[in-house]
Amino acid sequence: MAKRDTGGVPRSFGVPGFSLESILEECRDKAPEETAAPETAETEYRPETEGYSSEQADYPAETEYEAEYPDEEEEYPEYEEFDTGEPEYETAPDTAPDGPEETGEPDGRCYEDAPEPEEAAEGEIYDEGFEDDADFYAPPLEAPDEPEVSEEAEKPDEPERKSKKKKSLGNVSRRGRGRAPGPWGKLVGLLAAASIRRANDLSQPDPEPEDVTLEMPPQRAAKHYAAQMPSLRLRFFAAAAVCVLLAWITLSYDFGLPLPGSLGTNARATSLVCLIGMLSVMLIGLDVVTAGVMGLIRGRAGAESMIVLAAIAAAADVIYIAASGDGSHGVTFAVIPAAAVMFALRGAWYSCRAYADSFLALHHAKDAYAVTSEVLPGGKKERILIKSRRSSDGLVRRSEEPSGAEALAMAAFVPMAVGSLALALALSLGAQDMKAFFHLFSLMTALCVSFNWTLSFPILFSRTARHLMMRGSALAGWSGARDVGRSRRLVLTDTDIFPEDAIEITGVRFMDKSRAAQVLGITGSMLDAAGTGLAAPFAELMRRKNAAMQTVEDFSVGEGGAKGMVQGEEVRIGTLAYMHLSGVKIPDKIKEENALYTAVSGELAAVFPLRYRPMASVQRALAALRREHRKPIFAVRDFNLDPLLLQKTFGVSAEGFQFPSSAERYRISGIPASAGSPAAGMMAQDGLDTLVDFAECGTKLHSYGRACAWCCVICATLGAILAVVPAWQGLWTAIGAGRVLLYMLAWIIVPLALRTLLQK
Q1: Contact 630, 695 (CB under 8 A)
Q2: pLDDT over 70, % of the chain
């Protein structure tokens, strides 16, 4: 019996089947009618009735519509099959591969989320579209050598064979990937990965060096440090609460004060409690501990590293006391590093406050003056302090450089650590008590942890920065204070003594009134080339008289005046004495004490009487310079400004004030134009009082900072000397932790006392 072919469509859809014999018969019967009678191409459609067949019909052949849409009840019994209600499928070789054949054995995949076969639509084939997860993320392993079968050779009855083949390959790939590599495989993999990374690193170009000139903008830096202050303040109070408890326990144990429980009599229990308190403070000030550890690792150990070393020594002492039960040497010194962390947090708070004030003043300063420290020309290697219109770039980065105390701590760390170890070992051997080694080593390291290492300079700098900020100035931290402190000479210019509004032109007299505008323009051009303080008032006078600037050539200066070529004529300007030295005749009736004379081609052309008004702030600043024994250098370019005028105007003796020659003045005052020294600070306001106040604050900060830094070294050295005799004689009560704590706290009086001497 011929098998019905439904074209891959289930019978339940009502599509009739067809066979090869029916198609050939239809084509054979249909061809003659189309050639013989073309007019009968359109055949009337007649539905089939029961018992009707194409052989008994009056029509010559079966129509196309009858072949495509026959009645469901087919009269041919040989084409009828038992309908089980399940759709029939036809295998298509070019379609996606079928899933694995369902067997009784599990294949390692989960079908919990897949719909049941009966839930799918009738006639649809459920297909997830991908294989199992392992085959999705990685290709399967290569199958064993088998003969390749082309797609043409595949037959419709082969889907089951292909499904089994895929399943076997999937199982092989999963078995290969699921097996963990052995130790040798892991070692080979690590070596291969390391070699690949090394090859990649060698192939990469060298990184560009970091641009150290880049720095954070002042406003952003001020906000950054101001945002850290609340956290530092809170952690300081938390650490202070624990340190107060530790100090009470330590002092009570040493001086026999009552303590709860066995803390007053049992050194072992008291030491364990102190160790817990020290670790709590270390956790609160974790950034301080981290900085100390990183300093040890990087070879730049400083004050924080000494705190970490003292904490390790105290912990070792507690461990020995707890293990041996021997508390005859006294309680541990854990309170010292804990208090050092507390004061380090307080010092960080003062530093953030100082940086925030300095950078805020730097941000608000517009067209400010930069103060720099330069080497005085002449080969004496003497440094001078001078201000100029220069950019203050780099001030933020310089302010963040380590202070003098931090630099000294870095230099003294190794000697103090080695000395503590050697001294503890020597005292233990000398007293023939090796059990006291850990206690003595903890004592010596605790004496090296002076609280002024991290507190002294921040507390002084904070006071100075707040004072300077109120006057619109800023100091570049310790680096700026060092530059100011080393510069004992202060350079003063024209505007420092007489600002622009303090000089007045009281009158003008021209020898030839027809050339008044020309002479006025020539005089103003010469003053502008000289760079004196008279240039500003003369520029205003030229604007009112409509005088134009001229080009000056062959300009040179002399004692009390200057000369140059303007439009082919020799022009001289200066004082009365300079005109006499130049051979210019001055009538007696126009001789003025404070006046500027202009001569063109050897003849007097104009006289400009001047009046210098003294400023009270300048008078106070000059008096302060005399009190501080700071020698100012008057690098002024005003031809009339001399010691006599200074003494007559301000009533201050010019003794000790240096007035170099005119050529030296121009050279000194012209240094900032080409100097490349970094700025020591910034001034937003012009005036001698602002400059003197800046120099005074910087000098005091440098001197007091150095004194506090050396106090830390003296504290450690003197403490070690005082502890030698009691340790040698076994007088452990005299060098107890409570007495050592009081000794360390006493040294904080030094920065607190020096802070009161600074400007408020």
Answers
A1: yes
A2: 73
